[in-house]
């Protein structure tokens, strides 16, 4: 450590006089004290010696100038060093400690330049000096925090771009998918599934516990969130862990959830995304349901060709759909319950909390309006298809 930089032998009129003349020597001393006190500055990944020296020089100069003339402090150096240390990953505690060390060094120099401890000028200088150290420290911390937020946003944006890269089709350059997997910390092999989530309320964010909850079940995940949907890639070392994670999704997320068929190579991700989105749309809107692609082939067909499905629905159930809303709802509910209860009128009545004769009456009215009878297998199949189309597409 270098010697204290005082060069005067007589007491000047003001202890602050001439401080700027020795600011280079003070800077050298401060840099030595900072690096001695905090070994993290020895890490070449943080600040270089030249950067630390320039930052100390700028802040000491600004503090001394404000202390000498009593004017408004020039805080740009404090903001600059706060920004620089945030960018380089220097801990905020080290940033604050450096300002305290600077204040102590200046106080030692002022004391040495005074007439002694009883010098009445020291009291005012002490108050002014430590107020300036607080002001500069606050400005540096504010800049540090602002930079942290900006860096976090940049990191999040970069991660989001990587995640979206996963779901793009890179058949012509599969290395891009592999690179994204590596940078996101995901394995290149194992068991994967793509998840598509359509929240019940558009704009709903994913719960903060989702990734951790799935990881506890043995599945790693990354997510791409849009205003009306969320897309995720789940990976696990074995299929059983992936199934456990997939089974928990309904309890963790509110909305329609579609799962692709499991796959083992990243080249299948784009196709799996199509499957997952189709599976999610195969659940009734507004429900909290998880559907695996392939488990609802009729629903998949209807949402794949919605225009054709809607035309068929109007042809089959048109007279029912044109009824006043309450009557239409009663008839469709009876038909839905009857199919759900495998053609049992009594079970459908229990589900609807009405008499079974009411169910029979409503089914007969559907027959009379549409010309299709649930007792006829072909006509019943047409009614079932149209009913599914109404529940999936009429919203």
Automatic annotation (TrEMBL):
Residues 331-389 form the PucR C-terminal helix-turn-helix domain. Residues 176-281 form the CdaR GGDEF-like domain. Gene3D superfamilies: PucR C-terminal helix-turn-helix domain. It comes from the Bacteria. It holds the Pfam family HTH_30. Residues 24-158 form the RsbT co-antagonist protein RsbRD N-terminal domain. InterPro entries: CdaR-like_regulators (IPR051448), CdaR_GGDEF (IPR041522), PucR_C-HTH_dom (IPR025736), PucR_C-HTH_sf (IPR042070), RsbRD_N_dom (IPR025751). Belongs to the CdaR family. This is PucR family transcriptional regulator. It comes from Nocardia rhizosphaerae.
